[in-house]
Write a structure and sequence with these properties.
Elements: E1 2-3, E2 27-30, E3 43-46, H1 48-52, H2 69-84, H3 87-109, E4 113-119, E5 122-130, E6 135-136, H4 145-156, E7 162-164, E8 167-170, H5 178-194
Parallel strand pairs: 1-2
Antiparallel strand pairs: 2-3, 4-5, 5-6, 5-8, 7-8
Length: 202
């Protein structure tokens, strides 16, 4: 089962995240990305093998809002725009040529960054107090003081961060410009400098 609710529809620089790997899912679940979240919509793509099981019996899945015309029309429109404006290709290129290199450079500058990973416009940074032990900057269940300070430092500079425990997500829109990425990375750079005293390793 490929859960593409967050990773699908361009976020990883491909239509679906699994397409970046050798996986071949039997089911693909998707939601908000299919129509950019304009109207609630989700769905499941099934393999031919699974679909064949319903040749002899009806799938009992009819619900009040199944196949709602408004939601489906918004998905068709969003997909057409994504194709026409080459949104997927842009997300792939901006991740490969701008976001990835910028985060790599940031990790070389700030020891607080223990790991970076991602594709397209779907990235994460693990923040640590020590790179050798990989001790998280904000352990699970802690008061999260350091991450709260990081978030506040970003917000003061005009960036709304997405943090969770010791992880900062770098997830701009698929149509983000190189200039906007540079502006956001510069703010994160300043904010990490501000909380650099939390690093206790060598």
């Amino acid at each position: 089962i490929a859960d593409e609710v967050m990773a699908g529809f361009g976020r990883t620089g491909a239509w679906f995240g699994y397409q970046n790997f050798s996986a071949v899912p039997d089911l693909i679940v998707f939601a908000k990305g299919v129509n950019s979240g304009y109207v609630p919509l989700g769905g499941v793509v099934i393999s031919n093998e699974i679909a064949a099981t319903f040749d002899q019996r009806v799938f009992p899945g009819g619900l009040t809002y199944s196949g709602h015309p408004l939601a489906c029309a918004s998905a068709v429109a969003a997909i057409e725009v994504m194709e026409d404006e080459k949104v997927i290709e842009h997300a792939n290129q901006i991740g490969e040529k701008v976001i990835g290199p910028a985060l790599t450079e940031l990790a070389q500058k700030h020891k607080l960054i223990g790991d970076i990973r991602g594709l397209g416009v779907f990235w994460g940074m693990d923040l640590v107090t020590d790179r050798a032990s990989r001790a998280p900057l904000s352990p699970y269940g802690s008061l999260n003081t350091a991450m709260s300070e990081l978030s506040a430092a970003c917000r003061r500079r005009g960036l709304l961060p997405f943090v969770h425990f010791n992880r900062m997500h770098i997830v701009p829109p698929c149509n983000v410009s190189a200039g906007e990425v540079a502006e956001g990375i510069a703010i994160i750079d300043e904010a990490l400098t501000e909380i650099g005293h939390y690093y206790t390793g060598n």
